Amino acid sequence: MNTFRMTVACGLIAMLPSIFSAVAQETNAPNQNETKEQRDARMKWWREAKFGMFIHWGVYSVPAGKYKDTDNHGEWIMCTAKIPMAEYKDYTKRFNPVKFNAEAWVKIAKAAGQKYIVITSKHHDGFAMFQSKTSDYNIYDATPFKRDPLKELAAACEKEGIKLGFYYSQAQDWGHVGGAASRGHWDPAQDGDFDAYLDKVAVPQVKEILTNYGQFPAVLWFDTPATMTPERAAKFFPLLKTRPDLIINNRLGGGFKGDTETPEQFIPANGFPGRDWETCMTLNGHWGYCQSDTNWKSADDLIRKLAEVASKGGNYLLNVGPTSEGEIPAPCVEILKKVGDWMKVNSESIYGTTGGPFSYLSWGRASRKDHKLFLHVHQWPANGVLRVPLANKVSNAALLVSPGKKLETKTEGNLVLISVPATAPDAVDSVITLDFEGDPVVPTPPALNKSAKASSCQKGAKPEHALDGNASTAWQGEKGTTNGWLEVDLGKPTQINFMSFEEPGRDKDKRGQKYELQYRDGEKWTTVVKGSSGGHGDAKTFPVVTAQVFRLEIKSAKDRPGVSEMQLFGPE
Ligand code: H79
Fold first, then answer.
1. Measuring CA to CA, how many Å separate 310 from each of 47, 278, 348?
2. Residues 6+ apart with CB under 8 A from 227
3. In terms of domains, do 403 and 543 share one?
């Protein structure tokens, strides 16, 4: 049988694009010389944790998304409503979160099955959520609250066995002279020298958050590296090295890769083979509290996303935005509780797992622990037979909820067929465990390394690059083009009901494509499905089409058309 192992090389494409601008200069960087064993030991708790709570809390929770006649802002309100510095600083007087209870928050995370928390210690607005000697623009000195919530959270996390991490906006700071603003300053009070800001505010504050909270932070989460250079990033290195166990994300800038890739608001098509990664997502449409935004994701959706992230080897950092009174909004608590109910029964299929061997399963996802697969069945088979595209010998199959009750299995070609009960134990995600022997052997994706053609081709960006299983190489149309097509010949008529593609990383404002998937139908092209992407590709399921030649037609692209990886699959 034709088999493969995914080798999508270290996918740089999903990082914030500005990271590309600088050449890596890491000689001085933390963890440069650690061995694989040291790294595995340092990353161990994080890799096992899989599920965390992101908390965006700051003085922006006071306006709660409203400014004059607009009500759809979030943690960016100071910038998106162009509020002058002095006026924004006035919100501190009304920031008195007396209902804040660190223990209660930690318990909400714990009940959801989350193993770690990452909270904003300072967001782009420059307001510190901790007692700071560096700047009195902080929750302890500038508000009536006069408490340090990070201290209280650190104590509660320690007590409850939850890891605590700090987000810190190192470059953007709209509340201090010289801080960066990715969309430009709007108040002359912000103008000043960026390096002086780094030396006088960002570096000393990072020192404070790294030294004043006992065993924490376990994670340091930088953001928007826009104006950082290798020299500027290096200003933080000596500090970071004082905490040898610290896990640092990839957003410091200046070419520093950090420990984790951080796709934001999307789950990458194939994860990041060879890299640790964590997708962060909102529970509604905003990170910071926005009173008008009640567009909550359902618990069902979150559970399936958690399974998807786990099936691709990542972590899921799910955000809540507490109010200015200090409460996590009630709908969030309710939804998280439902996720927790599922986790109570099924967490073995999440914690400590690695990604599964399949690029696609029509009925769900699969995570893995050594020689055990956890099959996350989202569409329960109506005929009582689950089809698993695996050529290995299988020694046991059972529902996770009834481990002692063996399910009947048989092998048919390259498939394992599992007889399952008539009704799903869980309507959203039922987990079946499957023990197998040897290394997983799965079918080769139909389009992998097949012959490709394209409308035009930028030098060195050949059509085959979109089918080579390597997301760090891409096809791109000629410079100046804003539409085009990529064609693949599968070699024989093949049943297809799913397509996904990823896009090469470029300037974030220039990404996004409108596309149609088509198949050759005699002399003409017939459209299967249409869609649009925002820089991170897209995926679509559709009724089965049997055809040999498929084409992704890019109807319009903000920059030249491009695809770093395209995949087609059919039902098992
Ligand atoms: O902290 C969260 C975001 O505030 C931060 N990263 C996550 C974890 C982030 N900073 N910059 N960006 C994300 C990318 C830029 C987003 C923007 Fe916009 C699009 C800025 C202006 C348009 C979103 C929509 C924010 C304001 C309006």
1. 10, 10, 11
2. 171, 180, 194, 253
3. no
Q: Is 456 in the pocket of ligand 1 (CB under 6 A)?
A: no
> Nearest 5 degrees, angle CA 438-CA 443-CA 444?
120
Domain assignment present for 15: no
> Of 330, 349, 368, which residue constitutes the final position of a domain?
349
Please say if the pLDDT value at position 317 is more than 80. Answer: yes
The average confidence (pLDDT) of the chain is 94
- Whether residue 22 is predicted with pLDDT greater than 60 in this model: the reply is no
Query: Which segments of 39-115 are extended strands (E)?
Result: 51-55
Assign 27 a pLDDT band (cuts: 50, 70, 90).
low
| C-beta 553 within 6 A of ligand 1 | no
Confidence of residue 559 (pLDDT cuts 50, 70, 90): confident
pLDDT digits (tens, 9 = 90+) for 138-167: 999 999 999 999 999 999 999 999 999 999
- Which ligand 1 atom minimizes the distance to the CA of 280? 8
The answer to whether 130 and 121 are in contact (CB under 8 A) is yes
- Number of domains the chain is built from: 3
Point out the domain boundary residue: 349, 369, 387. Answer: 349
Dist CA 118 CA 101 (whole Å)? 16
Q: Are 410 and 477 within one domain?
A: no
Best CA proximity match to 471, nearest among 446, 499, 503, 445 = 503
> Which atom, in ligand 1's list, is nearest to the CA of 262?
8
User: Which residue among 70, 76, 77 is best mutated to probe the pocket of ligand 1, counting the most ligand atoms within 8 A of its Cβ?
Assistant: 76
User: Is 281 a member of any domain?
Assistant: yes
For ligand 1, is residue 76 a contact (CB within 6 Å)? yes
Q: Is 224 in the pocket of ligand 1 (CB under 6 A)?
A: yes
Q: Which domain holds residue 530?
A: 451-569
- Ligand 1: distance of its center to the CA of 104 in Å? 28
The confidence band for 4, taking pLDDT boundaries of 50, 70 and 90, is very low
Give the pLDDT band (50/70/90) at residue 509. Answer: low
Q: What is the pLDDT of residues 242-282, one digit of tens each?
A: 999 999 999 999 999 999 999 999 999 999 999 999 999 99
Q: CATH code at 390? A: 2.60.40.1180
Ramachandran angles phi, psi of 552, nearest 5°: -100, 110
Q: Would the pLDDT of 188 be above 60?
A: yes
Q: How far apart are CA 50 and CA 43, in angstroms?
A: 12
Note whether 51 and 182 are same-domain residues: yes
In angstroms, rounded to a whole number, what is the distance separating the alpha carbons of residues 320 and 156? Answer: 18
Q: What is the pLDDT of residue 117?
A: 99
Ligand 1 pocket residue status of 502, Cβ below 6 Å: no
Q: Which residue's alpha carbon is at the smallest distance from atom 6 of ligand 1?
A: 223
Q: Tokens 């994300």 sit at which residue?
A: 249
Query: Ligand 1: which atom is nearest the Cα of residue 56?
Result: 1
